[in-house]
Amino acid sequence: MDLSVDIAGIKLNSPIISSSGVDGKDGERIQQISEYNLGAATTKTIVKDMFVDVIPNMKAVKGGSMINCVFGANLTSDQWFKEEFPKALEAGIPIIANMAGQNPDEAIELAKGCEAAGASFIEYPTACPHMGNILEAMYPGLKIDLPEVSDPSEYARQIEAVKKAVNIPVIAKFSAIYHLNCKEWAKAVVEAGADVISTADSIGPAIGIDIETGQPLLGGPKGYGGLTGAALKPLVLRMVMEITEAVDVPVIGIGGIATGADAIEYIMAGASAVAMASSTTMYGYERYGDVYDGIVKFMKRKGYNSLDEIRGLAHKRIAERVENEQQIIHTPLVPTRNMGVCNSCLNCLMACPYGAIDMGETGPIFIEENCHGCGMCVSVCGNNAISQQYYKVD
Question: Please, what is the end-to-end C-alpha distance for the chain in angstroms?
Answer without folding.
Answer: 21
